[in-house]
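note to self — DONT lose this again. spent like an hour looking for the file last time. sequence + predicted structure for the chain T wanted, 342 res
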Amino acid sequence: MFERQIEIPSAEAICARIPLPASLAAVKAERDALVKDVIAGRSQKLLVVVGPCSAHEPAPVLEYVRRLGRLNERVKDKLVLVPRIYTNKPRTRGVGYKGMFSQPDPENRENILKGILTIRELHIHAIEQSGLSAADEMLYPENYAYVEDLLTYIAVGARSSENQLHRLVSSGIELPVGIKNPTGGSIPVTLNSVFAAQSPQVFMYHNYQVATQGNEYAHVVLRGRVDHYGNDIPNYHYETVMQVFDGYRKAEGELKNPAVVIDANHSNSKKQFRQQIRIVEEVLQNRLYDKSFKDIVKGFMIESFLEEGNQKHDIVFGKSITDPCLGWEDTERLILDIAEKA
């Protein structure tokens, strides 16, 4: 049975209530173009999607994004920095803190309407204060309409990449969508998801039959895999990346804009957050070794916050309450190093 608790207004009503100012929409449009150019190979810059595992409270997120905006001025000739403002948290067993969208105060009960309003204000302030528009994970496709005018990059998670609705909605998004390999790690399955997202589709969405033209900027994200015994197995190494390269090559004419983004955390790092530094360095080294590898690897996802590690409750300002993250000092050094070697 379903107990009705709070009626949620339509996405159109919410967006009208807290609109993105035209001046900031223009900033976002410029940023969208930068990321599209990277994915399509029109730009040789590297994409870096970086920020906390989960944005659980606006103040530290805004402080982080302001710092990232200042750092962006130092690296923008080589990198396109996109802050992670991830507001939906997937849970392996379905229970626990599910992110700001559902629970704007992590210490209190769910309030989705307040969560949506908080998120819209957070994104608008982030663009205004840093000049950077953000990325988020599309955990619930129906929720995307509430933030579609605010984002520059969309991620589809490992647990969602085989889901039909995620693939279909991705086909109608006019932004780069990074589709992670499923938890089992299958490259053919991942490429099938990209193919579905790049293809025109007809389906039901928000009470309408809708038609899409396909999203040519949908691409692969490698985040590691989990074997049948629960062990994390990395897949950022040269051999797996080139397997993806071969998959794109064999699908020539069917798949556009061959692209791989390396998620340096999750099963690639076995959630040992400091390993992200070593993983990024290895990938950068491989880009020097092989032109095909360099051409297809378009960037990185990195989990980082003001303070390193994580905590169970929101006590330390700017410290993750979900997965552990790099601290700011390490993050700044790493981004400067990526820019130097890009």
